[in-house]
Design goal:
By secondary structure, the protein is of the alpha/beta class. The protein has 2 domains: 124 residues, STAS domain (Transcription Regulator spoIIAA, 2-Layer Sandwich); 95 residues, Alpha-Beta Plaits, CATH 3.30.70.100. The protein is built from 8 helices and 10 strands. The strands form 2 sheets. A 6-stranded mixed β-sheet has the order 1-2-3-4-5-6, with helices on both faces. Strand 8 and strand 9 form a beta hairpin. The protein starts with 5 loop residues before the first strand and ends with a strand.
Amino acid sequence: MNSKLEFDSEFCNVRYIENENVVFLTWKKFAHLNNYRTPTLFVLDLLKQFPHSNFVVDARNGFEDDKEDVDWGFSELLPNMSKTDCEYVIFIMPETENLEDEMDMWTKEFGKYFAVVKVNSYEQAISKIHNRIIVNVKYAIKPGKRDEFLEKVIENGIMEASRAEPGNYKYEYYKPVDSEDILFLMEMWVSNKAQATHGKTEHYRRLQSLKKEYVINVTIEKYSASTIE
């Protein structure tokens, strides 16, 4: 059955789930060209139609890896999805090495625009949407060096690279109005694993080098939070 809220074919099913405000795509088998593009464009239309809806993909039966469609997805589909107010893209998938390799290119590309999570079930997907890891960092900077430190962070691509990590939801620096030598960083991650992975990246190591040069002291607060709808 195909309607304004649901698309169904032998290859996949797409439907809008109102109580969760989720666009849910289930792949039934490999699809190519119009069999792949028509339902994913239907996903795009639903994301546009329903404000703040999120995208959940059941990829347990595989996922698109045809080069022609992948190129179309990267150059056409995802940039247009990024213009919606979707925040999360969540993949339901088994932990198998073959599918992990196939999915990595997609999660990395989606991660340029959205917070990306891999889970084992739809229930886990919904839980992830409503729970985030928050890290608040307070930097005490050497006197008169705060702006220079922040400029170096930007020049080294640390903010851009951190925001592009698939598991990142937010990465923002803030200057308090009552101090010239304090800098705050607020991070939001989709899971503890995503935040831990961040600590193993090359851009994180670049940040540590800058901190040795510019920072006197660091205070970190980390906690989990549920979103309020």
